């Protein structure tokens, strides 16, 4: 704190109502998921900021109001750094004309934005009710022991970040492990250990369903809204997911057509 009571960053200190300066928590510490690793992270370089600004211009062109692009721009920061840093938050705020508090509120609300560096592959083990009963807890414990890391931590080689995840609507293939949000169905402790070993060896296997695996930064770029040339390169929905649709087709059943603006409406609708 300087002689006039300002913090080193030039921001007046908060007060507790008695005139005494209250403790001010740094911006990067508001997220309870943060750990010590984030405090020592590298700042965004000038080149990285320029790349983000160039891509952001493409994203902003899709929206009538700049602030509507907030979530895609956070993905752009994550695509560049592997997480959303305090520098990234400030950059997004500057691009969109928002406060850092407004950007931080979004970055800390949604769990898909990482607030500390993430591994090349984010491995999520579903431990919600059905997956847990069918072995999800055992899979998570096996990976935790095998990798030597806890929930939310990353292996020393930077390859794998491990975390619990909630239901991903794949209960028909439980227990499920997600890698960068792609499905690996019907897993066991042994198959999950083999999966992470291949990820660490640079030999990512094909998901059970969905596109070939991308790295965490690559998938963040796609989630910002940029084209995915491999979207249809892998298996689609499996038989269990399509059972209801096939049954309806066999009975000649179909959903009613979606009403359009000029379609006649039933009386009282």
Automatic annotation (TrEMBL):
<comment type="similarity">
    <text>Belongs to the complex I 24 kDa subunit family.</text>
</comment>
<dbReference type="InterPro" id="IPR002023">
    <property type="entry name" value="NuoE-like"/>
</dbReference>
<dbReference type="GO" id="GO:0003954">
    <property type="term" value="F:NADH dehydrogenase activity"/>
</dbReference>
<dbReference type="InterPro" id="IPR041921">
    <property type="entry name" value="NuoE_N"/>
</dbReference>
<dbReference type="GO" id="GO:0051537">
    <property type="term" value="F:2 iron, 2 sulfur cluster binding"/>
</dbReference>
<keyword id="KW-0411">Iron-sulfur</keyword>
<dbReference type="GO" id="GO:0046872">
    <property type="term" value="F:metal ion binding"/>
</dbReference>
<dbReference type="Pfam" id="PF01257">
    <property type="entry name" value="2Fe-2S_thioredx"/>
</dbReference>
<feature type="region of interest" description="Disordered">
    <location>
        <begin position="230"/>
        <end position="269"/>
    </location>
</feature>
<dbReference type="InterPro" id="IPR042128">
    <property type="entry name" value="NuoE_dom"/>
</dbReference>
<keyword id="KW-0001">2Fe-2S</keyword>
<keyword id="KW-0479">Metal-binding</keyword>
<keyword id="KW-0408">Iron</keyword>
<feature type="compositionally biased region" description="Low complexity">
    <location>
        <begin position="232"/>
        <end position="245"/>
    </location>
</feature>
<protein>
    <submittedName>
        <fullName>NADH dehydrogenase subunit E</fullName>
        <ecNumber>1.6.5.3</ecNumber>
    </submittedName>
</protein>
<keyword id="KW-0560">Oxidoreductase</keyword>
<dbReference type="InterPro" id="IPR036249">
    <property type="entry name" value="Thioredoxin-like_sf"/>
</dbReference>
